[in-house]
# Entry
Amino acid sequence: MDKNNSMVKAYLEECSSALLYQTMSEVEKDPRIAEVYSRISKTEIEHAEYWKKQVAEKGFPFADYKPDWRTRTLVKLGKRFGTGMILPVLQGMEQTGSVGYGRVPGASAMQAQEQSHGRLLDQITGTITGGMTGGVLMQLEGRHRSTGGNALRAAVLGANDGLVSNLSLVMGVAGATLAGKGVLIAGVAGLLAGAISMALGEWLSVQSSRELYAHQIATEAEEIQTSPEEETEELALIYEARGFDKATARELADKVLSNQETALDTLAREELGINPEDLGGSAWEAAITSFVLFAIGAIIPVAPFLFTSGMPAVFISIGLSTIGLFILGAVITLFTGRTVLFSGFRMVLFGLIAAAVTFGIGRLIGVSIGG
# Structure
């Protein structure tokens, strides 16, 4: 029975992968990359059909495939924000699938295909630089790292930081004194302090990166002017490392350096891994986003103290925070593949433990001072 269940699970996972790849092929703007996604989708369908046949032969009943909430959500995110929202998740799925097939007798061919899919996704997201064959490089040339999925993950974690930290602060002050005004002031102060700190840290991080990238690009521009032959040789070596023969690599490098208008852009992307158009994004946009996300999470535990006080406010705060923590835990399953209940209750458990500890410490301090 366990083996049959594993085969049904493999069938459903392959169907989900096929749907996600098909979605990416539909929203990808580069037709060459879209074709890659479409081909992978067809391979995943073949894998699904294999498992469906295996289960059918054993007479084990199962329902036709229907996308689960996680897959449906990723499809919607991909259609709305582009392939970058799905790529990080698929990378994890391919890695898990490859490991899983390694334990299944007779599935070595599918394991090799899953590994190949994983390498392709690594190349598309820019996480590795070597070993790309010439044909694949021609398909993927000009791509740079997609950050949509990472941005969504950062958004969830930012809101979670705000919720957990301010819940702990509010519970600590409430434990020491149940005065509504004191808890409210502390909660608002914690919200502002945390959000400003997050925003400042994000601004400094992004701005420092932008300044470093700008300096590197300026250095690259100077080297193009003073040592064009050396830059050509470096670029040729990069192409050779990615699978081109020496003659073709040199020809491509000469072609790139012959056009001064595009040479710097290409070298920045190929040698430095930098997109000159955005230099890693806007520091102000990152700061404002961090401020807002932290504040959204931090307002949840303090909101009840705007309308009431004492233990009723404490209980309402805990209730709202529990709901918020569960929702954030559920959203995280988009990246982890865990069940909603597991991730949701795990997040709730950790958050409430932190709140209980600070409430207890605050209570002890309050009794000590009051006694």
